[in-house]
Amino acid sequence: MNKMHTKFWLLTGLVLIVSCKLSAQKSYWSNVEHREPTLGVAEVFQKHNTPEFQLKLVKASQTVAALRPMDELSFDYTPGERLEVRDKDSLYHLGDINLRIKTSSGHWKTYSTASNRAPVTPLAIKDSVLAAADLANTLPKDIPVSIKRFYELDKGQLVMRFEITNMQDTPIEIGALGVPMIFNNILEGKSLTEAHKQNVFFDPYIGKDAGYLEVKRLSGKGPALLVIPKEHMAFEAYRPLLDDPTRKSIVFEGFHEWMAHSKAYAENEWQGVEQWNKPTSVVLQPNTTKNYSLKFVLSKGVKHIQETLIKEERPVVVGVPGYVIPMDVKAHLYVNYKSEIKSFDVYPKNALKIKEDGTTTTGLKKYLVSGKKWGRARLTISYNNGVEQTVNYKVIKPEAEVIKDFGNFLTTEQWYDNPNDPFGRSPSPISYDYEKKEQVTQDGRVWISGLSDEGGAGSWLAAIMKQLVQPNRTEIQKLQEFIDHVLWGNIQYSEGPYKYGVKKSLFYYEPDSLPKGTYDKNIDYTTWAAWDHKHANDRGRSFNYPHVAASYWVMYRLARYHNGLVDNKNWDWYLKNAYHTTIAMMEQAPYYAQFGQMEGSVFLSILKDLQNENYDEMATDLEARMKERADHWKALDYPFGSEMPWDSTGQEEVYTWTDYFGYEHKANITLNAILAYMPTMPHWAYNGNARRYWDFLYGGKAGETSRVERQIHHYGSGINAIPVLKQYRKTPDFYLLKVGYGGLMGSISNITQDGFGPAAFHSYPSSLKIDGISGDYGSGFYGYAVNSATYITNNDELGWLAFGGNVSQKGTAIEVIPTTAAKSKIYLTPKKLWMTLDAGSINKITYDTSTEKVTLVLDPKTEHTPKAYLRIDDSIVLPYKKVRGAYEIELDDTVKEITL
Question: I need a surface site. Which of 211, 427, 557, 564 has the fewest CB within 10 A?
Fold first, then answer.
């Protein structure tokens, strides 16, 4: 790398941003621009100041035109900047309401204030009411209820209330009631700097009366907006507003609505789908009125959301180690609420076991939670004051069993063995369709069946990464065949001027060059995604290189630190190939190499092993090239670009190198951006779920579920957990541990009982299921494989805790038995002690709080692992020989105890 390369990166990055903005501005709103304006934005606006917000309303509709924090009036939580193009019928705004009502006719009928706009009728205001209106004019004449909307203050806080009255002389049933949550997540036309300063993302805790919506700036800075229930507004469901014509794309995830009742949808569009909460309705008697209201409050920042909820007297629970519970883990739930618990209800029955476990030193109720049945489980907590809270768990097998099943599935059901394959893909772990129970050997997006890109490389990457966690000689022998016959010399060039370059796909569409019948006539090969041979061979997509480099690195570790697991190549061949692949990424794919790469943290692992092996020339070269990339990122405000206008995949590597080179300010900017799109909340699907919403298009199953949709624990969860947990080890902050561990466990939460790893889980309430194919899951499993560890901490409020282990206390001795699959890494927070094994496994660890003595117990030796290699803080000296920076420890036939 040189200065010219750096200049090229800066210029090409600018070109990408500008071209995205220009193309978006020309076409993005073309589907609504011709519509007649009906919102009334050409007329007067109303402004109301509250202690926390400036509320701006469109006078004609009394919908929200802007919601600005008083401390920063230049910032708007809503897409107010788009009012002049979003002022048409059927485009939702904050302040709208949707209902489905059933009268004596017996049929659900849908009503929405957004469908046909008309000026609403203002009502007289008094006392704490800021603005009020009768919404009859903007609703159909046959609606059997009257709806009045109030913006008012409750002890100085902003409340939006809907007053619904049954105008008929017979009862009616409201089977759906939703309030659209319209905040500014439209990134169209924005540079990364503009988007991080002006836009927000929002995450739902769909937890009934304890539910809330958190709205956070992309930068992670500044106050977070919380929407919380005020009256009869349980957060029952989160419905995508698919009828809003704002174009969904990689720059717009779409809007959702907060639903207090959802029975009418459960009986129709969502029929047969198990929802997060039991769908409800309400019967409104004649001339009866019911209010539904939401409160808007500000939290000091992302990390202060929980304390803000406590201040607002909302039920707050904390699950340890989270809400994905392996069956061998003794999990805990801590409850902080003013009202006593009346009862627990578990659905499905007996899926969880709840046992009271006393109180913490600060008076919080403490419960043991055990997973008994594999799958989703809902815990409903009923409080004496009538409040109901739901906590959604995912029960999985013990981690070791999950990973064992996963490796077996990849090397059996997904093992493609066809010596006559014209594309040279045999033998390999290939993409798999779990719904059809068959391998995906053809797809209109050629990379899916072409063993490259994330969507095609995912399965073989995962199969190799699995060996880092849980080596299996039989599986490794198969993977050696894949490396010798498919990876080296086919996916990756093994000779000539392109040596070490990585192709975009082995599979391609070129019917004239192959025998008739090669391609399935039922597959659409007419799109841009059906690359021909020339485009499939292109080496310019840098994101393909980390998959290959990571695989070589794992094989190096297996060959170097174990006996007899790898025999097709020497350990140094693998390490050198990992280095050369990394260099080739920057030389043969320089344009996209300007961005952070998913799995890019592996390059630091490769560097460290080059240094450990005293390969000084390679190490110096690699470090210098990476420093040029880090220097480039240091110069940018928000260096998180990719081939997409906004992305959540580059942060992993950007953090890795800015942290490594001591660019703490940029590393913190990166971390804050991650925390903005990676929440922690009492719901397994959203806890640690890094935001991804377009990869069902590129890596998911083709068909009706190939759409822009919030993905649940797509690979973003696994890779973004890497910097979050690394930062925790640097600056222990319980919030980081909760977020990072949520992402870590989320990365394996979707693996099925028989071991299939899907691309992600569908969040739409019409689906709520795993995606049909394996797709790009391998990148997420990489995050688990390199990041899985046991964390031990003594929390001021909750006491001694273990994430990834079971903790017990005997006098002054704290004992933890690891429950991770590898049992190879432990972080002891009170001592800031990070212990990792290159080989071997940890049976248990004991920490004496009075003497501060740490005792590590290692498992017995095995056929392939006669020695353990322990890496630990340099200040600790052990009576063992150091090899490549690690203590080499001869294992015994029984457990071996080491005192630190």
Answer: 564
Q: How many CA atoms lie within 13 A of 412 on its CB side?
A: 10
CB 672 within 8 A of CB 658: no
At 241, the amino acid letter reads L
Phi, psi of 266 (to 5 degrees): -60, -30
Dig out the tokens for 673 from the structure.
Answer: 């951006």
Is 502 in a helix, a strand, or coil?
strand
CA distance from start to end of the chain:
43
Ranges of H-type helices in 234-328:
263-266, 305-311
> Residue 503 is encoded by which pair of tokens?
């192709």
- Provide Rg for the chain, Cα atoms: 28
Q: Quick check: 224 and 215 in contact, CB under 8 A?
A: yes
* 342: its two tokens: 């009346």
Q: What is the Cα–Cα distance from 566 to 556, expressed in whole angstroms?
A: 9
Sorted by sequence, the CB contacts under 8 Å of residue 650 that are 6+ apart come out as 595, 596, 597, 598, 600, 639, 640, 641, 642
Where do we find the tokens 């717009």? Answer: 252
Whole-angstrom Cα distance, residue 744 to residue 764?
Answer: 23
Instruction: Name the token pair of 497.
Output: 């001027």
Q: From CA 667, how far away is CA 660, in angstroms rounded?
A: 9
Beta bridge partners of 881: none
C-alpha span between 572 and 555 (Å, rounded): 10
Position 642 scores a pLDDT of 81
Angle formed at CA 549 by CA 546 and CA 550, multiple of 5 degrees:
80
Residue 165 CB coordination number (10 Å): 16
Alpha-carbon 544 to chain mean position: 21
8 A C-beta contact, residue 758 and residue 752: yes
Polymer length in residues for the chain:
900
The DSSP element (H or E) to which 754 belongs, if any, is: none
Beta partners for residue 230, in sequence order? none
Could you give the CA distance from residue 696 to residue 683 in angstroms, rounded to a whole number?
Answer: 22
Nearest to 724 by CA among 659, 661, 772, 821: 659
Mind giving me the DSSP string for 200-239?
Answer: EEEEEE--BTT-EEEEEETTS-SPEEEEEEEES--B-EEE
Q: Which residues pair with 826 in a beta bridge?
A: 790, 835
- Specify the DSSP element, H or E, that contains 473: helix 473-482
At residue 26, the pLDDT reads: 52
Helix (H) or strand (E) run with residue 67 in it: strand 64-69
Q: Which residues have a Cβ under 8 Å from the Cβ of 688 and sit 6 or more positions away?
A: 322, 678, 679, 680, 713, 717, 721, 738, 739, 740, 741, 742, 743, 744, 745, 746
Residue 674: what residue type? I
Say if CB 456 and CB 429 are below 8 A apart.
no
| Number of helices followed by number of strands (H, E) in the chain | 18, 43
Place of tokens 């890497």: 722
* Interstrand relation of 237-240 and 324-326 (parallel, antiparallel or unpaired): unpaired
Distance (Å, rounded) from C-alpha 49 to C-alpha 165?
29
Q: How far apart are CA 398 and CA 404, in angstroms?
A: 10
636 by DSSP, 3-state: which? coil
**pLDDT averaged per 10 residues, the chain (length 900):** 34 36 60 92 91 97 98 97 96 98 92 98 95 98 97 97 97 98 96 95 98 98 97 98 96 98 98 98 98 98 97 98 98 97 98 97 96 98 98 98 98 98 98 98 98 97 98 98 98 98 98 96 96 98 98 98 97 98 98 96 98 98 98 95 87 98 98 98 98 96 96 98 98 98 98 98 98 98 98 96 97 97 98 98 98 97 98 94 97 95
- 40's enclosing H/E stretch is none
Tokens of residue 573, six digits: 């061949």
- 702's enclosing H/E stretch is none
User: Would you state the pLDDT for residue 15?
Assistant: 34
What pTM was estimated for this model as a whole?
0.96
Which residue matches tokens 């046992």? 355
Give 547's DSSP letter: H
